[in-house]
Structures are given as C-alpha cells and as structure tokens.
Amino acid sequence: MLTGKRILLIIGGGIAAYKSLDLIRRLRDQGADVVPVLTKAAEQFVTPLSVSALAAQKVYRDLFDLTDEAEMGHIELSRAADLVVVAPATADLMAKMAGGHANDLASTLLMATDKCVLIAPAMNVRMWEHPATRRNLAVLRGDDVLVVGPDEGHMACGEFGPGRMSEVPDIVAAIGAALGEGPLKGRHVIVTSGPTHEPIDPVRYIANRSSGAQGAALAVALRDLGAQVSFVTGPAAVAPPDGVAVAQVETAREMDQAVRAALPADAAVFAAAVADWRVENAADQKMKKGAGGMPVLEFAENPDILAGVAQMSKGRPALVVGFAAETEDVVAFAQAKLARKGCDWIVANDVSPGTGIMGGAENAVHLITADGVEEWPRMAKGAVAARLAARIAEALGAG
Ligand code: C5P
Q: Which CATH superfamily groups domain 188-395?
C-alpha cells in the first residue's frame, strides 16, 4: 500500500500517455495522492480534464502560471512529493533531464526536485536504441534516476522491439520499491537468468535445462528489499517477475551486451546458465539431410559475462556473485571458479540428475566467499533467493 504517499506524476507526450490514466487510478487505489503534471505534448494524447478527474486534483501545466506561482511555486511543487514519476518518459524528456534543461514546467520540476525520480521510458524501438538515448540513459542512471522498463513488444507505430512503456502494475511495483523502506532502496542490482540458445541454423539451437526459476526468485527477493533490478533473461520457462526492468535475450553474446547496457550497478548476480560455446558456422538456411553426409559443427567460445564484469578495471559493481552448477566435487570446483573468474561470491549447487535441482522447486547450495564455505540446508528456491538477497543487502552495507 502507498497510503499517504504523495507522487508527482509527470506525463510526457507519447501514445503511452493513455496508460498514465490507469496508473493514476491504481496509485489512488493504493492510497497515494497523485499530483499530475502534463507537458504540452502530453495534452495531445490525454486531456487535462480526464487527468484531473482521475487524480481528483488540479493538473499543473504551465511554468508561468501566476496563480500556481502565488499558491505554491514550482520549487515547492517538486519538493512536496515523496517521489517524482515520469510516465511516459519520452526520448525528448530523457534528453532534457540528462542535459539539465529547464524550459518548461516538467523539466523545471525535474531540475528543482530533491526527491528520487523514477522514469518509465516509452518510445519507438529505433529511438530507444539510438546512441543518443543510450547515452542519456547512462547519464540518468549515473544521476541515480530509477528506470522501469521499457518492455519489448508490438508498438503503436507497427514496429516490434524494446520501447513499449512498462505495464501499469509493473510501474506501480517499481514505485512501491522506490518508496519502500527496504534496505536495498536506491540500489541497482543486475540479475542474469535462464539458459541461452545458440543457433545451429534458423530452426535448431543448442541449449540447456535451466528453467530460470532461481534467477526469477532472486530478482523478486531483491525487488522486495527495495532494489531496482535489471533482469537479463534468456529464453526461460519461468516468466520474468513484475516490477523489474526486463531485457529478454537469446544468445550469450546478446546477454553480454544487455548486461553491459544495464551497468553501472551496485551488485550483479549471474544466475544464468550461459552456453560456453556457440556454433561458429551456424547456417543461414535450415540444414538438410543429404548426400553430403553429417554436418560438421564448428564451435567458438562465448564471452564469459561474469568474468568480464568481475574483472572490469573501472565501474565494477561492488559485489559480483556467480553461480556454479556442478555434478561432482561441487565445493572444490566452485572455489577454483571464484579465483578464476574474479568474483566475490560463488553460489554452488549440485545439479546431478538425482538431485532434481535443475528445473525443480528446491535448491541446496554452498555459499563460497573469500572467508570460507557455508553449507545452506536444502530449501525452496524462493527461500534461497530471500537469504541471498538479505546477504547482498548486508554486504552492500544496506542491512
Ligand atoms: O564457467 P561456468 O559456466 O561454470 O560459470 C558459471 C557462472 O558463470 C554462472 O554464474 C554463470 O552465470 C556465469 N557465466 C557467464 N558467462 C558465461 C559462462 C558462465 O556469465 N559465458
């Protein structure tokens, strides 16, 4: 519940602005007060009257409104809130924020506020992927702006890809996390999860049995402690949780790129079962049986995402956690892995078929750190996740 929380909601000018009407309702259902601000462009998509009716509040629209300035003033307006939310955050608004512009009410409020800011980006996929937007996003993350989404999917412009504004329940969850008093509030944690698929040809691929259950449970546990979670997942059986920023990828190389795009972070947890190798001579067309005999697959090594991040010379997350799924000598192999990869902790588990752990509901892990080895009892993956999330909070000094 968000009872008594005051949210300054800046609605940007994009087609996703229609979702902001629902967002106002859901936030009020949870007991929050929503003070709406419309940009000029937003007024092309939603009317001040409907926003005002749903918020049961005056809508703020103009920087130079003398009545508002006499009543409250834009400085006060920006500070009386517990949280500032920008939804939809258009490419233009993000650029203004990153550049420190203050030439209308929305951008001035964003410059004047002393409160945490959460943005829900929404734009065409090309705009989202444009180097300028990537740069602006990195600047905003560096300025401690929280980000929810965007999602991947069909867009109003007819294209497909990342850029759709997060669904309202996800934005509400991110608002809850940002306002929550959880120990990881204001911290950014990256979690990788699921298997990767490495194509052999357009219809076949190499994969593994990871369900993504442990990674998803971890993302939930970190989110519930108030962290802002970037969840980078391969094609997993388990759906990504609500209230986290999801990047869905297929191959190890895509996962590597998505992790790097999500940096900087306070901690990174690598729960994905990444394929060690990809097929270097993957075919562009479906391979056929024929007189040529058996196809010969040539392999190339995939980037080791965990080792790459753990060994970054600049901007390394304060805590880097790897997983080690082994079928024999679990602890010895995991200790060697900790040293080889340069990470801080390894969560090691025995995934021999007899254990039922891979794809199952439970996990039995050892936590390996520089200080030694802890053996945790067998428990539900959610319980392992909650315990690990609490340890992460402690290690970040956020406990
Ligand atoms: O070397 P191995 O695959 O056993 O290491 C497992 C750990 O390394 C896991 O945390 C996994 O997510 C991570 N990893 C990775 N990129 C790879 C291979 C493994 O991030 N290419």
A: CoaB-like (3.40.50.10300)
The preferred substitution site among 274, 330, 367 for testing ligand 1, maximizing ligand atoms within 8 Å of CB, is: 274
Per-residue model confidence as pLDDT tens digits over 30-58: 899 999 999 999 999 999 999 999 999 99
- pLDDT per residue as tens digits for the range 204-237: 999 998 899 999 999 989 988 889 999 999 999 9
Query: Given ligand 1 and candidates 190, 306, 368, which is best to mutate, with the most ligand atoms within 8 Å of its CB?
Result: 306
For residue 4, report the distance from its CA to the centre of ligand 1, in Å.
44
Query: What residue segments make up the domains of the chain, in order of their start?
Result: 6-178, 188-395
Q: Is 267 helix (H, G, I), strand (E, B) or coil?
A: strand
In 305-360, DSSP assigns E strands to 319-326, 345-350
| CATH topology match: 6-178 vs 188-395 | yes
**In CATH, what number does 6-178 get?**
3.40.50.1950
Q: Which two tokens stand for residue 388?
A: 């690990």
Record the pTM.
Answer: 0.63
In whole numbers, what is the pLDDT of the chain averaged over residues?
91
- Count of beta carbons in the 10 Å neighbourhood of residue 368: 23
Atom of ligand 1 nearest to the CA of 306: 20
